[in-house]
Amino acid sequence: MESDGDILLFLGRWHPLLVHLPIGMLIMAFAFALLSRKKNKEVFTPAVSISLLFGSASALIAAVSGYLLSLNGGYDARTLSLHQWLGITVALVSTLCWLLYRRPISEKDVLHPLRKLRFALLTFMLVLLCVAGHFGGTLTHGDGYLVEALPERVRRLTGWQPEQVVIENVQEAAVYADIIQPILKQRCQSCHGAKKQENGLAVHTMEALAQGGEGGQVIAAGNAGESELYRRLILPEGHEERMPPKGRTPISEGQIKLIAWWIDAGAPTDKKVMELEQPEEIQPVLLALASPAASEDIPAADTEAVEKLVAKGVKVIPLAAAKNQLLVNAVNCPQFNDEDSRLLSGLGANITQLKLGDTQITDSALRHIGQLRGLQRLHLENTAVSDKGLDLLNGCKQLRYINLVNTKVTDKGLQALAHLPTLHAVYLYQTGVTTQGIATLAQAMPKLEIDTGNYQLPILSSDTVVYQ
């Protein structure tokens, strides 16, 4: 047998249907009242009172059903309160308007002084109705649901733009707290937050997100492809299970990539961006999060320098719009040499990533590379670079990643790496470094990830093929 609470909730859930009747009737009443004010249009006056009768009655019913629905919780308290009291006020004012329009404006009774103001009261009621409807839409679709659908041109004219996740120093940012959680708050929390939890899912804290919803867990740490959260985000637009649902501003492709990257990394809550591996496809997305102030001192790239590099077959790729940072990749130019490296000096502030693996460069090239003050990732694998060249990288104060696989680097060269404050990962497979040299570097830089390669997988009894 159903409890009273279930019955009340059942009645309350009729509110979205019931609320549209008074809206239509009251707007129609205002339209009739407006027409009746014109000469020879007095015939519409009786229709005003009839429309107001049905409109005010249905407004009272909608207010009661809305109150019953609110008892279930799950809504922002401030927005709910505004919507609730505005709705009640609309019901009361529309009832008063009905009483004023029941009799001719000239009739002498207790309401006669107010009848002269009845059209003004009806106009006031219409304004209240619009504001109450706005807050009702906010409860259903989330804050900003109306303006976020504006065309881009109108947004620019009005100066309104959707809230964006902007970070001063992306590499130092906490992955969950500074990037993922704000995205979930912006796009998901209106329906899956502390108050409103559709399908039992809340995302306002990591604990709630890890708990999942009525259908079970939504995150498979370490595997975005197996995570229900990610699956819902990449469904075709219009699919009934896609999130955010139809009618809401869709989550951006970059935000989806960030969520997938975070889940694949194990969905950590205590890691900084610089502590996670950053695949090539995620790097421009992270770069785009940087605040304008973080890159406002970076000038536009020298066109002539870019053209000379491109003419040699080198790929020069902008990493993010309006950021002026570049990826320079010599993958199609294996003959790139020390003389060619002089061209890099003209882009000292612009080059963020430099890939010179499998080219003809030697230590002399690093004299020019050391002038790239904005450089963050450097690939030197399979080149003739040695310890002497690493001493020339002291100017690369933002360098986070360096690949030295199959180079002539030894323990002596590792001492130069200890002077790079932001270095996070170094790859040393097939180099001349020793176990002792690696231990010394690890002691000097405890947070540095040192990859020496040469991995060996254990042989399992279930293996059918063993590779030697």
Describe this structure in words.
The protein is mainly alpha-helical and 468 residues long. The protein folds into 3 domains: 4-141; 170-288, no CATH class; 297-451, Ribonuclease Inhibitor (Leucine-rich repeat, LRR (right-handed beta-alpha superhelix), Alpha-Beta Horseshoe). It is 42% helix and 5% strand. Strands 1-2-3-4-5-6-7 form a 7-stranded mixed beta sheet, covered by helices on one side. The longest helix is centred in the first third of the chain and has 26 residues, at 45-70. It is elongated and about 105 Å long. The protein starts with a helix and ends in a 17-residue tail after the last strand.
